[in-house]
Amino acid sequence: MQVKSNGVKVRSLFDLQQSLELNAVERALPLFEIDLSSSTSENNMSLNSSEGWEKVTATSEDGLHVTFYGLTNTIAVQVCCQPIPSQSGCNWKIDINSGSSDWNVENVRFPQVAVRRLGEEATALVPIGPGQMRPDAGKVAFSYDGRYPSGWCSMPIMGVFQESNGLGLYYAVHDEWGSTRQLMLESEPGMECIRMVFETPVPDMGKTKEYSFCGEGVWQLVRGGWFDAAMIYKQWAREHARWWPALGAEGREDTALWMRELSVWALSGGAPEECVKDVKEFQEYLGVPCGFHWYNWHQIPFDNDYPHYFPTKEGFAQAVSDLQQHDVFVMPYINGRLWDTRDRGAEDYEYTSAAFPSVTKQPNGEACTESYGSKESDGSPVRLGVMCPTTQLWQDTVRDIVLRLQNACGVSGVYIDQIA
């Protein structure tokens, strides 16, 4: 790293064993970028590690510690880099304090890196679903943008590899809490490089003056490819992640035995007379217990009038009992995030009076809403408010739906969509 009085730049990321420079010097990214918003106006600004600081100090005792002072010494940023020689890598932390300024911390992009194209067979790892390898990294233009954790971004890891030469860079965040982050990777053929960025939205955005990076950014050389990178993350997660489940000899013991032993599922829906006969015949033909993922068991239309799932369609509870006597484990569908803004036909029944305080909001106070193609009775699109999962109202609402399905209707489990 090159430390100057007004900023810091990453000048080299060198593999000593391969005698190879990995850093894309001509396209080098700032180590960090910080988005700030004003407490007293609508102004926004961004700071980066490369330039514009009034003072920069560095110490190398127990790792590299660099402190940046700016905005007339009203903001301080400290970056720590801890080398891990045994792993051919380093871990990164950042702390931000704007306490004596007018500015609040909103987003932090850290630790950013641009890696040069590693060879003709270079690949990039992106965590779509179980993970995906993208060929021609640095040769062909492509990009990835995913919000962790989600079904479309399953792990906070990325990487660039040239497996034929046993060369690669593992780029990850090791965070025991699994905090939300935006992962961005871009292959730039014009510059023959791959840019990788973690963007972290700061809690209490727009109100936060002090922020400490949750977890550690990790850069580590890999003598292999995607599998070796995945094993680095797996080993860390098993030892440190608070969300890692307790495992017995046959996997998760907190998952019901019937769920672990099922080998086949049926997916259908509607009123009992529309689906139960077919599901029973499906199980009888196979001759083994099966699961039934039941959609549209409720009287309200799909993706409409959520979360008012009751009353059920006539005969639902009796059909559940009948199916389960025939070795069919019933798991109905509900949505785990959404409340219809007009939740009784075209009427605002409880959305404004009950739900709105617990709906997620835009910075201007407007509700965050989504639409999925369903229509209201007047033909207009259904607009669904996105509920905040930390609120008591939404936790109680989902819990009550699940318990009513289990206790009053006798189902074996409940599928909570957009959460499961």
Question: What is the SS-derived class?
Answer: alpha+beta
- Total count of strands: 30
The portion of residues forming beta strands comes to 35-45%
The chain-level mean pLDDT equals 95
- Low-confidence residue ranges: none
Shape type: globular
Largest sheet: 10 strands, antiparallel
Could you characterize what this model shows?
- This protein has 420 residues and is α+β, with helices and mostly antiparallel strands.
- It is built from six helices and 30 strands.
- The chain has helices at residues 226-240, 257-261, 272-286, 316-324, 351-355, 392-409; strands spanning 2-4, 7-9, 14-15, 20-21, 33-38, 44-48, 55-59, 64-70, 75-84, 89-97, 103-109, 113-116, 123-126, 132-135, 142-148, 157-162, 167-174, 181-188, 193-201, 210-212, 216-221, 247-248, 251-252, 265-269, 290-295, 328-335, 338-340, 369-370, 384-386, 415-417.
- Strands 7, 8, 9, 10, 13, 14, 16, 17, 20 and 21 form a ten-stranded antiparallel beta sheet that branches.
- Strand 7 (55-59) and strand 8 (64-70) form a beta hairpin.
- The radius of gyration is 26 Å and the shape is globular.
- The two termini are 43 Å apart.
- The model has no long low-confidence stretch (mean pLDDT 95).
